[in-house]
Design a protein that fits this description.
The chain is of the alpha+beta class. Helix content is 25%, strand content 29%. The strands form two sheets. Strands 6, 7, 8, 9, 10 and 11 form a six-stranded antiparallel β-sheet that branches. Strands 1, 2, 3, 4 and 5 form a five-stranded antiparallel β-sheet that branches. A hairpin with a 2-residue loop joins strand 8 and strand 9.
Length: 198
């Protein structure tokens, strides 16, 4: 590409809507539903503002040429609900502790109005809020505290606790030994923190 732009597709979910649309790993998404995607962090915001079930025109660059694909936007939770059910339709037992708690030593929650008020978090801060830090964990050593907000994990924006969980799961599958996390305090001041993926 002549100029740096767009969001690189690093992998495809076999059950997701990108697969039947013909989007492939290595494609670069430069436009979604008529909106320019200048960098990766633009894409989650644009997708989140798009109606579920809508047929969306997605412009990609593949081998230097622009192509337009049509993607029927799905709802992430639907796939997650299916995955949590056993064959007879009864819910599978949840893990004792989520990966984020086990790996990073953090309890995370989705940002709500109540949590914003409790921790005095500015409206401009987006991400997953830390509600507890495990004593003697790497996160405790790096001075994480309740009310901190995880904004990015490994340079990918996260909108909620599930995004963080999924990102950590993926990094562990890739056998990464550490992860770089972008953290905001209640005032929106940012810092990068490297945490081990034990």
């Amino acid at each position: 590409m002549k100029q740096t732009r767009g969001a690189l597709v690093a992998g495809i979910d076999e059950k997701g809507p990108a697969k039947p649309a013909g989007i492939e790993s290595g494609d670069v998404i430069v436009k979604f539903d008529g909106k320019e995607i200048k960098e990766m962090r633009d894409l989650p915001r644009v997708v989140a503002d798009t109606t579920v079930g809508k047929d969306v025109q997605v412009v990609i660059v593949r081998k230097g040429k622009e192509e337009t694909k049509t993607v029927k936007l799905g709802r992430l939770e639907d796939g997650e609900k299916q995955a949590s059910l056993t064959k007879n339709g009864t819910p599978a037992k949840p893990e004792e502790k989520p990966v984020v708690k086990k790996t990073l030593g953090l309890d995370l929650a989705n940002l709500s109005e109540d949590l914003r008020k409790r921790y005095k978090i500015k409206d401009t801060v987006k991400g997953a809020v830390v509600t507890a830090v495990e004593p003697n964990s790497a996160a405790a050593e790096k001075r994480f505290s309740a009310g901190d907000v995880i904004v990015e994990v490994a340079q990918e924006a996260v909108a909620n606790a599930t995004d963080v969980q999924n990102r950590i799961d993926q990094l562990k599958k890739e056998k990464r030994k550490s992860v770089l996390v972008l953290v905001a305090n209640a005032e929106g001041e940012l810092r990068f923190v490297a945490l081990p993926l034990q």
